[in-house]
Amino acid sequence: LSKIYGLEKGDNTILDEAANLLSNGRELSAATDQFFCPTLVHDLIDVVIEIQKKDLKGYLNVCSPEIWSRYKMHSKLAQSMGVDKKLVKKIKLYDLPQMVGRPLDTSMATTILDQNIQYEFTSFENSISKVANNYM
Q1: What residues have CB less than 8 Å from 44, skipping those under 6 apart?
Q2: Is 42 in a helix, a strand, or coil?
Q3: Quick one: which of 16, 42, 71, 86 could link to 30 by a disulfide (CB 3.0–4.6 Å)?
């Protein structure tokens, strides 16, 4: 798994936490060099059920094929919420001492999954809009 998120206000997943801060006019530090594949929790559940139905064995990367940086995500969220994009501060991940050594890219290839299961993951941009609407 890369990064799992939900769409409900107050679920404290990555989009909700950011939307809450932005809606209160608080600044967010967002890494331009950290990449991941945000995956909606409901999509994850659906794909796991399909994996079980097909009785697939072995190691599978399960995630959306979309690759986002935290900066791109937070900037798009600010835009969708109609808040000042200046609240999203560009940083490098290792500018935060507690993040030194963390991987910069946790995006994953889903070749085996794609060969075995045809599933259309929820667009992250659409999800950003839905979460933004929770705070408008």
Answers
A1: 1, 4, 62
A2: helix
A3: 71
